[in-house]
Amino acid sequence: MTENKTSRRGFLGVFLGGGALATLGSILYPVARYITPPALSEAKLSQLKLDFARADIEGEPVKAKYFKYGRELGIIFITDAGEMKALTAICTHLDCTVQHRPDLGIIWCSCHNGRYDYNGQNISGPPPRPLTQFVINEIDGTIFISREDA
Ligand code: FES
Hints:
By secondary structure, this protein is of the alpha+beta class. 26% of the residues lie in helices and 29% in strands. It has two domains: 39 residues; 99 residues, Rieske Iron-sulfur Protein. The site of FE2/S2 (inorganic) cluster (FES) has 11 residues, from loops.
């Protein structure tokens, strides 16, 4: 009788312990998955077709548009000379988004007054590196963006 009680107690202990472990696991596993980011693999983008045309960035007051190239943000604009240029739109200093300043003839970062020329070269302020240029192909009014290294 005592042996039977002990084995029943043992069974209950194992059963409750297993349940507690399963509950703890069901709580900790999603937390661990949330904390540990999955390894993201991104398909290499060879070319991006923009959903707007040159006319959409030529007119006043819009002189630039932003686009997503994979996970990168880019900016496309028309220079004072009428040339279309596309650069990465993230400042190389502290990752603020740059903007086209046609009044100054530069690409400008408002965070710390970083300045780039129209080729993306950092010309004044704290940005340590130039912005990367995209290659633009305009075919029948459709704009295609690509990377030189792609
Ligand atoms: S983040 Fe652009 S100048 Fe500092």
